[in-house]
Structure formats: structure tokens, C-alpha cells
Design a protein that fits this description.
By secondary structure, the protein is of the alpha+beta class. Helix content is about 35%, strand content about 25%. It is built from nine helices and 17 strands. The structure holds adenosine monophosphate (AMP) and magnesium ion.
Length: about 350
């Protein structure tokens, strides 16, 4: 049959659908916000947003959360952790992709970024409601279990083995980035070319806001968890991800303890930085790099970022000085005069 010819049954079906189609064209579904992956997530598809698309995107986020979360009782990473010292565990394709990428960043940072830091993350309990400064002995025990080189990833068998009892993967530094890429892929396959995927501040800006018009993305005040935007930049088809000391933290005896832990000390990473923002075509890379660059500090962080094509960074230090990678010079707008851009060093 000529595909351009209407079969009568299709015509009737099309007519019956018309009122619904008409309404959904006239009024897009509002942006959707929900709590998933341990954080507040918003997806905004503007005029192209439909309830069905938002349903589908959030359903996928929940599946990825269950698979990749170290804190889920039943997920794939939880299964791998439960098999530590016992047996190789079948790993989902998603887990293998995220873990392999994480291990590449461990190599690139000489082990500063380490997805086997799970026992230490659990011990500190930051953001898990069990925060405390652990005794030195317990820190040492948790550190002894870490070590990314020990992880046995068998791509052929599709398994992951953690060889010591008590070892524990934590993909929290990279999972949201991967999830944002996955949602963008899903939405692209449904014909979406423009929108914002915001997974707790891990932003992926799909396409442009409007033809010829980039998105404006803000960088939040890294001195407080409720801060507004202190800088902004324009992006198209980029992910913008920040790691900083005010995302998850607690205070004890006047000291601030945040959630990015240094495997060489067992304590929250301490250097000149308040935050690092990465701008990159891939969100998984932006997420892994923001945590990695934070751990390495400004100089070594800038060097790491320079190895990745089309990837830029903004480093904010404790004196509110701001350093950017070369490709961003002149492209960051300070909205708050306390933040001083060092564009020329
Ligand atoms: P992010 O907010 O992306 O910078 O990731 C921080 C999260 O990554 C923490 O909440 C931990 O779950 C995990 N994490 C902490 N320290 C490290 C580390 N040195 N390497 C890899 N992941 C880490
Ligand atoms: Mg990260």
C-alpha cells in the first residue's frame, strides 16, 4: 500500500485522537520535579514537554538509581558490595560502563578519585544522617579496604569482583552524570532537541534554548548550601557540573567536614578550593572531572581538565578568587562583586 494513502481505519483513529492531540499541543506539560538519586531533580522540556515524556524520564532515573546506588538494599552495586570477598557478581551494562569510566579517572588522578572509597564514605556518613568524625583506627581500617586496582572487572563474563570482605563500591561521584547522559539519550530518541536536565545541580543543557540562543547557566555561591548564582555562563549542548564543600557537609566543634574524601588522609579533601565547575559535552565526564579536579586542587586540576577536548573548568578558591581554563577566558560573567575573576594568570 502507498504509505501516503490513508487507510479508512487510520483516518477514524486519527479523528478520534484529534481533540487530545490538540490540547497537548496547545498546553505543554509543566516541568517535572521529583526526589530521586538522593536529590531534587528537575526536567524542563519547555513547549515539547508531555506528561508521558516526563513519566518515562523519571522512571528511567529511578531504575538507574536502584542499579547504581551503594545505599539501595537491592540494586546491582549493592549486590556487588554484598559479594565482596565471596564471589564475582553479574553486573548490568550500565554498572560496567560507569565503573569502567570511574576507574579511568582513578588512573588519571593517581587514585585521588577512587570508587572503592565506599567503606570510608559509609564511616563518615555525610548526608546519610549518621555524620560524625570517626576515630583514627576506624578510618585506617576503612582506608585499608579501599584501592581501585583491586577491583576485578570481567567484561567478557560481565561480572565485577571485590576480592576483600568489607570492600564497597561508591559511584556517587559519577552516577548522576551518567544518569543525565542517559536521560538526554532517551529524550533525543523521542525527538527532543532542547531542554534542561537538572539532577541536584548536575545540569545537562540539551541543544539551545531557542534557535541561535544559548542557555544561561548559573554557578551557585559555593560558600553556602542555599546560595544563589554568583556567576553565569552561556552554553549549548553542554553539561555543567559542580563539586564543592557546601553540597553535603556537617559541622562539629566549629569545624566543617564535607563529603569529598581524600583517600590519602581519610579526611575531607582540604586545599585552597571551595568548588570546581566543569563544562563538558558529556555529563559523566563533567561529574567525574568535577570531583577529580576538586581533589587535585587548582593547578593539577587545570592540567587534568586540559587533557579532555571541549572541556572547560571554573575553580573558586577560599578567597573567592576565580580561575578558569583557557577556553573560558572572558566567557564567565561575575554577578557578585565579591568573586574576582583572575582571567590573565
Ligand atoms: P560529587 O558530588 O560528584 O563531587 O561526588 C561526591 C560523592 O562521591 C560523595 O558523596 C561520595 O559518595 C563519593 N566520593 C567521596 N570521595 C570520593 C573520592 N575520593 N573518589 C570517588 N568518589 C568519592
Ligand atoms: Mg562528581
Amino acid at each position: 500500500m502507498n504509505p501516503n494513502q490513508f487507510h479508512p481505519v487510520f483516518t477514524i483513529a486519527a479523528l478520534a485522537l484529534m481533540p487530545t492531540v490538540g490540547v497537548s499541543c496547545a498546553r505543554p506539560a509543566p516541568p517535572r520535579t521529583d526526589f530521586v538519586m538522593g536529590t531534587v531533580c528537575t526536567i524542563n522540556l519547555g513547549k515539547k514537554g508531555t506528561e508521558k515524556l516526563y513519566d518515562e524520564a523519571f522512571a528511567r532515573l529511578r531504575v538507574l538509581d536502584a542499579l547504581l546506588s551503594a545505599n539501595s538494599e537491592t540494586g546491582n552495586v549493592a549486590e556487588i558490595n554484598a559479594g565482596a570477598g565471596l564471589k564475582p557478581v553479574r553486573a548490568a551494562e550500565e554498572t560496567l560502563t560507569v565503573l569502567s569510566t570511574a576507574l579511568e579517572f582513578s588512573e588519571a588522578t593517581n587514585g585521588a578519585f577512587d570508587p572503592t572509597i565506599g567503606p570510608l564514605v559509609k564511616l563518615w556518613g555525610i548526608g546519610l544522617g549518621s555524620e560524625r568524625v570517626p576515630p583514627r583506627g576506624e578510618i585506617d581500617q576503612a582506608l585499608a579496604l579501599a584501592g581501585y586496582r583491586k577491583v576485578d572487572v570481567n567484561r567478557t563474563a560481565g561480572t565485577v569482583y571485590l576480592p576483600e570482605p568489607g570492600m564497597r563500591l561508591d559511584l556517587g561521584a559519577i552516577a548522576k552524570g551518567y544518569a543525565a547522559d542517559e536521560i538526554a539519550r532517551l529524550l533525543s530518541s523521542r525527538g527532543i532537541t532542547s531542554g534542561i536536565i537538572d539532577l541536584g545541580g548536575n545540569i545537562l543543557a540539551m541543544g539551545e534554548k531557542a534557535p541561535g540562543k544559548p542557555w544561561t547557566v548559573g554557578i551557585r555561591d559555593p560558600q553556602t548550601s542555599q546560595g544563589g548564582a554568583v556567576m553565569s555562563l552561556q552554553v549549548a549542548n553542554r553539561s555543567v557540573v559542580t563539586s564543592g564543600i557546601y553540597e553535603r557537609f556537617f559541622e562539629e566543634n566549629g569545624r566543617h567536614y564535607h563529603h569529598i574524601l581524600d583517600p590519602s588522609t581519610g579526611f575531607p579533601a582540604e586545599n585552597e578550593l571551595l568548588s570546581v565547575t566543569i563544562i563538558s559535552p558529556q555529563s559523566i565526564q563533567a561529574d567525574a572531572l568535577s570531583t577529580s579536579a576538586f581533589l587535585l586542587g587548582t593547578e593539577r586540576g587545570l592540567e587534568l581538565v586540559s587533557r579532555y577536548p571541549d572541556t572547560e573548568a571554573v575553580f573558586v578558591d577560599r578567597d573567592l578568587g576565580v580561575r578558569t581554563s583557557e577556553g573560558l577566558r572572558g566567557r564567565v560573567t561575575a554577578l557578585d562583586p565579591r568573586f574576582v575573576l583572575h582571567d590573565d594568570d
